[in-house]
Design brief:
D-Maltodextrin-Binding Protein, domain 2, 6-stranded mixed beta sheet, binds pyroglutamic acid
Amino acid sequence: MKQIKRLVFSLIGLMLCAFTSSFAATDFVTWDMPTPYPDKTFHTQNIIEFAAEVKQLTGGKLAIKVHSAGSLFKHPEIKNAVRGGQVQIGEFFLSLLSNENAVFGADSQPFLATNYDEAMKLWVAQEPIIEPLLKAQMLQPLFAVAWPPQGLYTKKEIKSVDDLKGLKFRTYNATLEKFANVVGAAPTQVEVPDIPQAFATGQVEAMITSSSTGANSKAWDFVEYFTDIQAWLPKNIVVVNRREFNKLDAEVQKSVLEAAKKAEIRGWEMSKKENAAQIALLKENGMKVMQPSEELMKGLKEVGNQMLDEWKKTAGTEGEELLKKYYN
Ligand code: PCA
């Protein structure tokens, strides 16, 4: 009898434990999400919508608190903050990881993919290659969105690659830094929120970035020319810590993946619309929006070819596989 009592008690105990822990798992959870770019950036807007959708789909079980503009973690620290579990989810510029493996930087190779269709094709080729690399670091990619094509911002008209020589050049990753070095410019890494200040103080005088980042930074305050070279479309990626993701209920996990899928589609559409609108805004504010000369494009593409050859050497078989998929 005693034994049966004990058994019943321990069974009740077990059930209570299971109940409270499952309750804890389904209880309301808040995730912190650092992002590098200011609120008005379309990527950030897209992420704010993603967070709202997650909240709605999960009936409030998962709330994502967005900390934009590098306010919680500085851009270069975001990936490791997610990896280490200090935060559960985060956004960063994918090609920043090219120092770990060159395949992460495929989307920043000059003139490899120069429009939205090609950029999407490149992402389709790149995703299955980078996913296991991220997974090995406890990271699960959720979605990636391309920036508009990268253009050239300068104080003077640029007619050939030679005109870039000696310019103090704002850069945002190792590939762009390399590009600046190859064309004989002087690179300085500057995060987006610091662009206006870097130009105002003369730390830099030229840059390559999207119409979006140029217009958001009020480029007309410090440069006169935007040359529409459409050199590449780099991406931002959103990743989640897998341990944290696995803690969620299956239903909540499903909702996160569903919202992520929608965010990727919406983000690419936003990017396209953004490009047209922001180029118009550059013009409205008095900037000269130029089509590149043949000579400039020829020179830039030569630089692109040279850089791609070097990239192939460092990207090894994974890089080969990526390019094969992309070109097919
Ligand atoms: N804007 C970001 C990345 C690429 C872009 O268009 C930047 O300038 O840092």
